[in-house]
């Protein structure tokens, strides 16, 4: 079970690695930034660059069907409302189900495990390598992939003449997630459901912002992604979704001024920054909160001394889907528990 969880963690770390690749294309790499050694990348797993924002309305409609512009700027024509969907990423699976179309999913990747009902759906991909023969045999009328899906996978799906929609952006934020939900809603003929989901997200976000605005402090936060090497754990830096979550939750990211979006930070830097709260995204993969204080020198950190080292459900913050608001609330409850006493 632990090895399976670790494999799932590699999927999350691939996001971080791809962010590093993207950053390297536009700026010199930071000396401390490199791809996580615990997450080797397939050589084909290269970011699909988005050329335009995905439309939330058809770019054209005719007797041939509806044409949408997806997250990679591709024109995708659907002949009708899809009823046989293969979802190859957890985020797209969660979006489809949030729109009330879970029963339309006939194939998934192995990481798609929420909601629970999708666990009975056949697995047609290990998360990186789709089984094209099985996908074709399933006769899908829509295949959903993500911004991190390898271009050669998308090319192969296109060659097989399978309608494939790229959903999402590597630089995800709350606004882009809502656009993703609207895009999938348009593709599935579920515009009203998508509007309801995004409106609910907006309300929850507004309520959380109102509550967090009452905070009288802004605690320093260290968010750990991976501590395979405890002397150099990985943490999210500026421009990342988690950096936005920390800020919205009323905290200050100690790596918020790093030169790369994902950095491998020296333990000495963490100790010097003296975080008041430590959040462990890697808790599900074997890192126990009580183990953090046993690392050399970490016992002097305020978060350790005050028992403010917490695990968090990584799926809530690493999957750009409807549950990201739950991830924000979970983080806010850890950073500002005094605001959630009632």
Layout of helices and strands, plus pairs?
Layout: H1 2-24, E1 60-62, E2 65-69, E3 75-78, E4 85-87, H2 90-98, E5 105-109, E6 123-125, H3 132-138, E7 142-146, H4 151-159, E8 164-167, H5 174-187, H6 191-212, E9 220-224, E10 234-236, H7 241-248, E11 252-253, E12 262-264, H8 267-273, E13 277-280, H9 289-292, H10 302-305, E14 309-311, H11 315-318, H12 324-335
Parallel strand pairs: 4-5, 4-7, 5-6, 7-8, 9-11, 9-13, 13-14
Antiparallel strand pairs: 1-2, 2-3, 10-12
Helix pairs in contact: 5-6, 6-12
Biggest sheet, spatial arrangement of strands? 6-5-4-7-8
Average pLDDT reading: 86
Kindly provide the radius of gyration, computed on alpha-carbon positions and rounded to a whole number of angstroms.
20 Å
Question: What is the CA-CA span between the terminal residues?
Answer: 36 Å
For the largest beta-sheet, the strand count, sense and barrel status come to: 5 strands, parallel
Q: What is the approximate shape? A: globular
CATH homologous superfamily annotation of the largest domain: Nitrogenase molybdenum iron protein domain
Describe it:
- It is a single chain.
- The protein has two domains: 60-169 and 171-206, Rossmann fold; 215-340, Nitrogenase molybdenum iron protein domain (Rossmann fold, 3-Layer(aba) Sandwich), CATH 3.40.50.1980.
- 36% of the residues lie in helices and 15% in strands.
- The chain has twelve helices and 14 strands.
- The protein has helices spanning 2-24, 90-98, 132-138, 151-159, 174-187, 191-212, 241-248, 267-273, 289-292, 302-305, 315-318, 324-335; strands at 60-62, 65-69, 75-78, 85-87, 105-109, 123-125, 142-146, 164-167, 220-224, 234-236, 252-253, 262-264, 277-280, 309-311.
- The strands form four sheets. The chain has a five-stranded parallel β-sheet, with helices on both faces.
- Helix 5 packs antiparallel against helix 6 (191-212) and helix 6 (191-212) packs parallel to helix 12.
- The two termini are 36 Å apart.
- 46% of the residues are buried.
